[in-house]
Amino acid sequence: MDKVHILKLGNVEIGVFTKGAELYSYKINGEEFIWDRNPEFWEGSSPVLFPFIGIIKDGKYTYGNKEYEVTTRHGFARDYNFELIEKGEDFLKFKFSSNEETLKKYPFEFDFFIIYTIKENSLEIKYEVVNRNSEIMYFSLGAHPAFALELNNGINLNNYFLEFEKEETAQIYKLEKSLVLSEKYDYLKNEKIIKLTDTIFDNDALIFKNTESKEVAIKCNKSSKKITVNYEGFPYVAFWSKPSAPFVCIEPWYGISDFADFNGKLEEKKGIEKLGGNETFTARLFIIGTL
Question: What is the structure's pLDDT at 230?
């Protein structure tokens, strides 16, 4: 059983696993918003994606004339235990650092922090990546929270929809075996609503780049309960679920899965972040539950 850390402030309570510093619970007045990890559909709840997003083409890449192998999806941070280094009345701060094992598959020394802070009814998730090298560090970072959809009392998947903050005219990427194709196709035209269906994710995630909106909500036309994610600053946002599953993920990303035509050189990977020597990268998102 994973070790858990629970924080309660006012009418909000969160739970975080030591493994991956993964958020597994976010409750307001006892009402749960996070997917319950039912293995029938998906065993995750909110894994962190670091230092890669998606898959590495052929499970390997090169940097500095050396080849590295990464066969796991979404990097590897989510598979390691984080250390709870600080806890306050309203926050939990976790740390994960490079080690001998990570250096075999990722040639950079780093400190990676995740800080969960309760702010009224909202939850701030702050990410800090510290480059402990003197040279540029290449990395990607993403969030993957899964939000539960109540499918009962006459409510089915078709009653749910995603609603952007603003009307969007946007394309999404075509995917092939989880690799990204350069070709995109039109998806929204002066629209802010994406209706959920049993088949909407049959071809994997819907990935948008540089949306006008900085937040998106999951709503139901038969309930007042909703969840909003503010992802300001993240260049990509993706939506994903298993077919017919009672959850949907909102995934803000700094970075993207490998493209099918990727040449394997880390420095030339599309969407990769570049962090200067001994510098710190910071990103944050907000999750706001409403009953």
Answer: 98
